[in-house]
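We store sequence, tokenised fold; for instance:
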Amino acid sequence: MGAGPSFFLAVALGLAGTGPLAAQLRRDAFVQTVGAAASGEVLFGLGVTHITDAVFPLSGLSGDLTAAPVLHAVWAVGPRVAFEVRGAVRQVLSIDGSDRMPAVPLDPSVDDGTTRDVGDFELAVSFAPLGGPEGFSAGGHLGMKLPNSDETRGIGSNTTDVTIAALFSWLSGRWRAAGWFGVAILEAPSQIFEQNDAFAYAFESLWRASPRWRLSLGTRGRVSTRRLSPRGTEDLGEIRATVEWRRGPVAVDAGLGRGYSTASGDWNLRAGIAWRLAGGP
């Protein structure tokens, strides 16, 4: 998989001059706003995530996972292109148990009941050159998960995964619905020269209740195309409701999610704050 960060930035810059926008970027969105933010707008966010009964099939570990700080930076490169970087600087797993033998050797420090590691960071670019700022628009989404984690810590896979998807959006009045669906090319962490191609999807509906309050409901996940997935590439899925409050350049959000696959954990609690650093109304 020869794609890299420079590839995604090149795509973004190539589409940077394709039309007007109509709303603002959002921290921790399942589907980033495209065609709905001021050109040149930059958003930087900090957050915390807590997942109960998180499961890590590669290591066989399970327990409550806390990630903080979670960084998320979004840049409206052009009127119809958004480039983003997100990931957790630190993750801590309180180990409740192990349901199977690990597929990779684990660091001896994992035996003390707690393990820590950096999270995997993701680069993504979303673009919507078709359609207008109101009504229906369409384009694409490209994402790359970087191998930042150390698989011996038990809470990461240390793999490079790529997502290629078609993106759609519909905006009318106070409502906006957006989503993407495509293929996720997942590197198998415990098998050399092996990958798993999964169906990947994300959908989010946003309601602007007032100039300061926004509510959203969304889902994101992947489904393996294989009958038996290589360990570390299992199905994932989460549904989440989020409330967001804005005042000037600051936005505060909180969300409650629920995993609906065996590798997605149980409840997912999220909260954070974001600053609009440049651009925007």
